[in-house]
Design the sequence.
């Protein structure tokens, strides 16, 4: 019997993100198209006599991986005992969902170890807003509510590549939502257009570039001047940069792999660290 499960916990991009109404619990409902990218943390979960989480980066006291263990244990009436080891590659507080992806991977790995058929997406919603998407294992999805509703969408037939920047700054989600204004809303129609195109299997890089839109961009820019500077520098070189999540990571969509490598080089020369990544690859 295997006593350890290892999962590549992928990062995500929000191809489009619409902020809807503010809810009674203080959170905003969202409507967003999520895709995974091939930048991943390495998560290993093993049976253990107590709860121990080791992480190569200091993720602070609000550890989503530990919360994931406790939530699944509670839901399945077990002791929250597990050994979790996380090798971080996804930057923290970047808009790439790294902590949430680790938590989703912990839920999936632990469900295998414990031979549990618990509803991981439902349990994930207790752990954090972005965790249900990662717990679902979908590579592309429409995510709604606070993140608890995940509708998997067909992955594009042809591999699509993104170029993802690597800012060294961090931006707190809370601060970006606090800077959000009602007049910032414009992404809803773009989310709907992308969902329809993914469903019909007619998504192209150009289509994604036209519809990449994020209602949190104005708020993120109010909190972080550098975002506007990066966008201006890239735009002057013919590269549109879009925001993922609450930022500050920006990305663009390439025509193909060679185009992704070319744009990453141009951005690096302009002083913006960036890497090419494949998007929307199904769970391994
Ligand atoms: O998800 P997390 O707890 O990190 O979010 C931090 C803060 O960001 C929340 O307390 C809330 O103020 C805001 N937020 C929001 N709507 C969301 C997600 C976060 O208003 N869907």
Sequence:
């Amino acid at each position: 019997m295997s006593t350890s499960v290892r999962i590549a916990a992928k990062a995500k991009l929000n191809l489009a993100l619409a902020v809807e109404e503010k809810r009674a619990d203080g959170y905003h409902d969202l409507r967003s198209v999520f895709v995974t990218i091939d930048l991943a943390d390495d998560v290993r979960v093993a049976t253990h006599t107590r709860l121990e989480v080791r992480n190569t980066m200091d993720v602070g006291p609000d550890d989503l991986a530990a919360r994931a263990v406790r939530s699944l244990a509670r839901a399945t009436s077990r002791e929250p005992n597990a050994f979790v080891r996380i090798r971080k590659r996804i930057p923290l507080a970047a808009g790439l969902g790294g902590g949430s992806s680790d938590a989703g991977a912990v839920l999936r790995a632990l469900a295998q170890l414990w031979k549990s058929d618990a509803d991981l997406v439902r349990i994930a919603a207790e752990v954090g807003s972005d965790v249900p998407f990662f717990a679902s294992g979908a590579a592309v999805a429409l995510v709604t509510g606070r993140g608890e509703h995940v509708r998997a969408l067909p992955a594009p037939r042809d591999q699509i590549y993104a170029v993802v920047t690597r800012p060294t700054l961090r931006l707190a989600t809370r601060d970006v939502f606090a800077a959000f204004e009602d007049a910032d809303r414009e992404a809803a129609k773009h989310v709907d257009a992308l969902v329809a195109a993914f469903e019909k299997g007619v998504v192209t890089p150009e289509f994604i570039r036209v519809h990449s839109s994020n209602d949190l961009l104005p708020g993120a820019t109010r909190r972080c001047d550098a975002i506007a500077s990066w966008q201006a520098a890239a735009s002057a070189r013919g590269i549109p940069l879009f925001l993922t999540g609450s930022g500050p990571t920006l990305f663009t969509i390439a025509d193909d792999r060679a185009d992704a490598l070319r744009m990453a080089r141009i951005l690096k020369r302009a002083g913006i660290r960036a890497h090419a990544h494949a998007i929307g690859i199904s769970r391994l």
The longest strand covers residues 4-22.
